Amino acid sequence: MTHPLVDQFRFTRSEWLRGLKGVSEEDAAKHFGQMNCISWTTGHLAWHEHRTWLERAQNIILFPELNHTYGFGCPMSTPSLKEVLSIWHQVTEAADPFLNNLTTQVLLADLLLHEKPVGQTIGSALQRMTYHYWYHTGEVQAMRQMLGQKDLPVFVGDLDQEAPFKPA
User: Fold this and answer.
1) Helices 81-100 and 38-49 sit at what angle, rounded to 10 degrees?
2) Cα 80 to Cα 30: distance, rounded to the nearest angstrom
3) Residue 69 is inside which H or E element, if any?
C-alpha cells in the first residue's frame, strides 16, 4: 500500500500536469521580468526530483545536466517545453519505484548523499517537494493569466476523489 503522503505527492504532480495542458511552446518560452519561463520551471521541477529521489536517495544520475541548467540559482534560459517535459516524465518514472516503497519508518530516516546525511529526512524532502510544486503551479497559472489565456484550470482539482485524506 502506498504511503498517504506519496498519494498526495502524486496528486500534486497530476495537478502540475493539468496546469500545463494547452501551453504552447511559444507561451512556455515567455519571460516576465525576473521570472523564469514555464519551460524552465518544468526543468527546475525535474531537477528537484532528480536531485532528491534519484541522486540523493539512490545514487542514480540520469541527467547530470539538470544540476547546471535548472538547479536553484542557475541562470535564466528558455528550453523547449517538449524537451523538458520529456525529461520530467523520465525522471518521475524513474523515481516512482523508490516512492512506492516509502513507509513511515523510511520517511523518518535521513536523506543521504554518498552515505552522508544532507540535513533533511526523506519525509521532510517529500513535503518540501510537494509544496515546491504548488508554489510553481500557482506561478505558472499567474503567467498564463498574464499571457491572456482563458479557461484555465481551477486549483485544487478533484482532491476528494483522487487523493482524499487517509491516515498513515
Assistant:
1) 30
2) 11
3) helix 66-69
- Grid coordinates representing 46 are 525535474
Contact indicator for 96, 13 with CB cutoff of 8 Å:
no
Q: How far apart are CA 84 and CA 90, in angstroms?
A: 10
Cell numbers for 104: 513511515
Contact between 43 and 28 under an 8 Å Cβ cutoff? The reply is: no
Q: Residue 74 is placed in which grid cell?
A: 542557475
Determine contact, residues 88/81, Cβ cutoff 8 Å: no
Q: pLDDT digit string (tens) for 67-92?
A: 999 999 999 999 999 999 999 999 99
Q: Which CATH architecture has domain 4-149?
A: Up-down Bundle (1.20)
Q: Report d(CA 130, CA 165) in Å as an integer.
A: 15
8 grid coordinates: 498526495
Residue 157 has a pLDDT of 83
